[in-house]
Amino acid sequence: MDRKQHIAIFTTASLPWMTGTAVNPLFRAAYLAKDGERKITLVIPWLSLKDQKLVYPNNTTFGSPSEQESYIRQWLGESIAFVSSFDIRFYPGKYAVDARSILPVGDISEIIPDEEADIAVLEEPEHLTWFHHGKRWKTKFRLVIGVIHTNYVGYVKRERNGRFQFHAVLLKYVNTWVVSIYCHKVIRLSAATQDYPRSIICNVHGVNPKFLKTGKKKFEQQHSSGNQAFTKGAYYIGKMVWSKGYGELLELLREHQNELAGLEVDLYGNGEDSDQVKEAAKKLKLTVRVHPGCDHADPLFHDYKVFLNPSTTDVVCTTTAEALAMGKFVVCANHPSNDFFKQFPNCRMYNDGNGFVEATLKALKEEPTPLTDAQRHELSWEAATERFLSVSELNQVCAKEVDKNSSGRFASISSNLLKNVEDTSAYIHHVALGFETTRRAFGAIPDSLNVDEEQCKELGLATPVEGESVKITD
After folding, report:
1. What count of other Cβ atoms lies within 10 Å of the Cβ of residue 110?
2. pLDDT tens by residue, 248-286
3. In what order do the strands lie in the sheet with 5-10?
4. C-alpha dihedral over 105, 111, 113, 114, to 10 degrees?
5. Which of 99, 199, 245, 387 falls between 20 and 30 A from 64, CA-CA?
6. Contact 376, 217 (CB under 8 A)
């Protein structure tokens, strides 16, 4: 009897942090496991208590991985209408305050035993492999698929201090380096990411089914009761940091206050720049209210008609997809990150400030066009999973064949040379990242080469002996 395909999905965040790399890989795991034809394991970071307090909202903390797993499964169960059987395993992680992200500790590939190592999906492969020191991913797994979520180079370029421009160039080359040596295939969610060898552009994300249900209710409300389905005006929701669109939005509102006279906008979010955003909003003649962050699925948002999203730093903006799924108008920039949304009639794009004003005023006056069944499907996780399986070719070829084809389809001097260069490059990365001084120079968190005693206890690992690394197993 043929053994089931085993897909291990590694990601860089986990609930209750409501970020894309926590939510989307969770849904990917659930929908890939839905038909029971594959064995799916979701591998997520475990943070010690001090880091949990920095990352997780509303003072939510967990005393053990099993407690956090229960929380995650309960949240998922409230979002989907089916039971999905997949495993959840944890790897040790540390929160980098300056980078505002979680970084792996130790060799996290060891979470999956060698006998189960079949296919690995690396959500944010550059992020997961910048400081990787351990078995080479392409050696451990027969097929490694990277899914690019974030435009890290774009974030660095947006820093106001010019000295970061050199960092952006360096980061671009480092990203290309690690993704090339550790991934067989790369999926870019949109053209807003940097380009990679062996990459294809495809949005393999969907929306939480809750938003599609809300959209259906609004459709019924529009066509049955005769009442106005949307009674509120414009809003924006997102992490309250300048780089997430707040700067662009407030600047557009400031420059066009006269044309937009009477417009009221509600902003929802939490973040490091909340106080500055509030101060900037107070200086406008327009009514701009700033509120604490809230789940976009909350009924609070159901009656808004227009979602304003000028952000161009997201690769594919989840909240834009959610707003469209709820039947709203979306006013967004004509930018590669929004290409996927051009197919939806309620998506109104602009090229400049005057276009923003025109699109916003027109959306406030009109009523959204109800989504067709086909359009709803395009936004769903069912469709996203179909796209993922298609572009990754998991239904057409086995991982072992892909590995062989990638290295030996054309047995020639040039192909062997390329393989030798890649092997040498991977070896250099492995050796360089095995020293604390080199790791620190690359930007790694101090003492992240090996798992510390605290996380060993929390994850049930063997306590490290001085001078020896800890083998991470589940």
Report:
1. 19
2. 999 999 999 999 999 999 999 988 899 999 999 999 999
3. 101-104, 87-96, 38-46, 5-10, 119-123, 143-148, 185-188, 199-201
4. -40
5. 99
6. no
**Contact assessment for residue 399 and residue 219, using Cβ atoms and an 8 Å cutoff:** no
Residue 1 has pLDDT above 50, yes or no: no
Rounded Cα distance between 401 and 39, Å, is 19
State the residue for tokens 């994300």.
205
How is residue 355 written in tokens?
Answer: 């276009």
Between 88 and 99, residue with greater pLDDT:
88
Specify the pLDDT at position 399.
41
**Sign of the dihedral through C-alpha 289, 278, 149, 195:** positive
Where does residue 437 rank: exposed (0-12), middle (13-18), buried (19+ CB within 10 A)?
exposed
Burial (CB < 10 A; 0-12, 13-18, 19+), residue 310, is buried
Residue 219 to residues 368, 379, 452, Cα–Cα distance (Å): 10, 16, 54
* 301-321 pLDDT per residue, tens: 999 999 999 998 889 999 999
Query: In 3-state terms, what secondary structure has residue 361?
Result: helix
What average pLDDT does this structure show over 277-297?
94
> Could you tell me how many helices (H) and strands (E) the chain has, helices first?
18, 14
Give the helix ranges, DSSP H, for 225-342. Answer: 246-255, 274-282, 318-325
HSE-CB for 235 with a 13 A CA cutoff: 26
Contacts of 243 (CB under 8 A, 6+ apart): 155, 158, 313
Both tokens of 120, joined, read 């690995």
DSSP state of 82: S
The pair of three-digit structure tokens given for residue 192, joined into one six-digit string: 């807003």
CA atoms of 471 and 474, how far apart (whole Å): 10
